[in-house]
Amino acid sequence: MYKPPDYLLVDELLSEEHKIIRSAVRDWVDRSVKPIIENAAQNHEFPIHLIKEMGSIGAFGPYIPQKYGGAGMDQVAYGIIMTELERGDSAIRSAASVQSSLVMYPIYAFGDEAQRMKYLPKLASGEWVGAFGLTEPNHGSDPGSMLTRFEDKGDHYLLNGSKMWITNSPIADVSVVWAKDETGVVRGLLVEKGMAGLSAPETKNKWSLRASLTGELVFDNVQVPKDNLLPNVKGLKGPLKCLNSARYGIAWGAIGAAMDCYDVALRYAMERKQFDKPIASFQLQQKKLAEFLTEITKAQLLAWRVGMLRNENRATPAQISMAKRNNVNMALQIARESRQILGAMGITGDFPMMRHMMNLESVITYEGTHDIHLLITGFDVTGISAFG
Amino acid sequence: MKVLVLISNVPDTTTKIRFTGDNTAFDESGVQWIINPWDELALTRAVELKEAGSVQSITVANVGTKATEATLRKALAVGADDAIRVDTEANDAFAVATQLAAIAKDYDLILAGIEASDYNGAAVGGMLAELLDFNSVSAVSGLQIEGDTLQVNRDIDGGSQLLSMSTPAVAIVQKGITKEPRIPAMRGIMMARKKPLNVVAPVGADDRTSFVNFELPPAKAACKMIDEENAKEIITLLHEEAKVI
């Protein structure tokens, strides 16, 4: 039975409501994710039925107001949900991150009332799946150089270009696509499934996030109705605000993967005997476990503090970068090291370490790479950009 | 039909049990509290019946201190409409049943879990029915409502029984009453914030039992592994060490 660590009694920083939220999502992960996720990852299949289930428990857009199908929760609640989902698998958390922070959030923050009412309830319930198109084949860390463009054709916009590494694009009912207008200003367009000229081929043969659907978005003279332009944002700050929200969620999510690895490794080390003693009695194993717990505890406090700042609308993008970068790296290192505690058993699908480890190789790259986040902190402390 | 579901606040089933005060009291430090799993099944069935239109309202009730309110809030998040907490310590089944009888007489149907996972007393539901002079049926594994009548399935030795009973009634439920406990949705958790949780003063009721002493079960003995080819050794051990043959 899963026993998450709480060395510094971080639970005492949470409200009773936060704990109910956590137990609800944890129960759902135990019931619906844990039993099937290993096979899904081994078979490189997205368990698509979980989209509706996540919708029904309210994992999509928990901080979006109830009027639009969300739950109206705070940022710490959103973080807690992400932690529990990622304990199951980063693929499941990714689906929730994209739907919540990259699709529902921009429609809520930058859309008009008609767009909010049209899309948000369906996305919240999981009836519709959303995707977010920013990264392009030749423009990843430098999205400002994107080539995807649209022209004003009077009664519609004409969209051309392509996006890559897009979670859920092959099944998305609506995609928030960032493209430049004729003056070179980045705008957001809501592109719906079935629009002529839109295709979304799946990206296969991944060694990471194998239980997640990834694909491209290709726009070949797609006619987008004018009502589908997000009216209330111009420029890169639109997608970057979405990424802030998603990165914040990832900072919490990674803790879930790390806690899962720690919990399994501790249990294994106490039970596995070599030289007539549990391997937990050897100093090298204790060193690993003690360091895991230290790093998880630091990550918990970092995530909680950034969450409280976000509740007050005071968290800066650079603070969020620090939390995302630190916590994902922490989880990746714990996945790798905890695998070693399990020896050969750790490479099998009977234990979650290799799956988490491979997933986290994506998580440390997407939503701002490990290196780029460091440059964001560097820029913040020196005032000198080292990006390009 | 107005339904009351009794909610016992119990330690999480994975809690490591410890005692204090020279083994006279349960050590509550660090314990996570949950809805008693059988009560959670009862509540889930009540919510299903409400969704099907045969229940008008669901109240949840608990006898306990303020510390039990988080558990009642979770019950509200699952789908109860309001909650009652009788503000006193719950130490004795008859005292608890007496407190509940004071608030339960106006309900048509009372659902109780067959036992609570802490002390496994399995007594409150039956006592409450007796104090209220309500019909009661135990070991209920299926429940339907038709008008004012309850259709109740009971597991009996070697089979099952279908009973029809009139209200007001107490149904003491067990596994099978629903498929699995309902997980509260995020919106439900937020709505629970605004639902009434009424605290009522206890009536006079003395405990009829008291805890004298607790003991943990003996530690599990080491498992002796015997080669599958060595039947003789296992017979020798069963005869000479275990002395069972």
SSE layout:
The complex is a heterodimer of chains A (388) and B (245).
Chain A: H1 16-42, H2 49-57, H3 75-88, H4 90-110, H5 113-125, E1 130-133, E2 149-152, E3 156-167, E4 174-180, E5 186-192, E6 198-199, E7 214-225, H6 237-271, E8 273-274, E9 277-278, H7 283-311, H8 317-341, H9 353-363, H10 370-382
Parallel strand pairs in A: 1-4
Antiparallel strand pairs in A: 2-3, 3-7, 4-5, 6-7, 8-9
Chain B: E1 2-6, E2 9-11, E3 19-20, E4 25-26, E5 33-35, H1 37-51, E6 57-64, H2 69-78, E7 82-87, H3 93-104, E8 109-113, H4 124-132, E9 135-146, E10 149-156, E11 159-166, E12 169-173, H5 186-192, E13 197-200, H6 231-240
Parallel strand pairs in B: 1-6, 1-8, 6-7, 7-13, 8-12, 9-12
Antiparallel strand pairs in B: 2-5, 3-4, 9-10, 10-11
Helix pairs in contact in B: 2-5, 3-4
Any overview of this molecule?
The complex is a heterodimer of chains A (388) and B (245). Chain A has 388 residues and is of the alpha+beta class. Chain A has 3 domains: 120 residues, Orthogonal Bundle (Butyryl-Coa Dehydrogenase, subunit A, domain 1), CATH 1.10.540.10; 98 residues, Butyryl-CoA Dehydrogenase, subunit A, domain 2; 146 residues, Butyryl-CoA Dehydrogenase, subunit A, domain 3. Helices cover 51% and strands 13% of the residues of chain A. Chain A has 10 helices and 9 strands. Chain A has a 4-stranded antiparallel β-sheet, covered by helices on one side. In chain A, helix 3 crosses helix 6. The termini of chain A are far apart. The model of chain A has no long low-confidence stretch (mean pLDDT 97). With 245 residues, chain B is of the alpha/beta class. Chain B has a single domain, classed as HUPs (Rossmann fold). Chain B contains 6 helices and 13 strands. Chain B has a 9-stranded mixed β-sheet, with helices on both faces. In chain B, strands 2-5 form a two-stranded antiparallel sheet. Chain B has a two-stranded antiparallel sheet with strand order 3-4. Chain B is globular. The mean pLDDT of chain B is 94. Chains A and B meet through helix 1 of A and helix 2 and helix 5 of B.
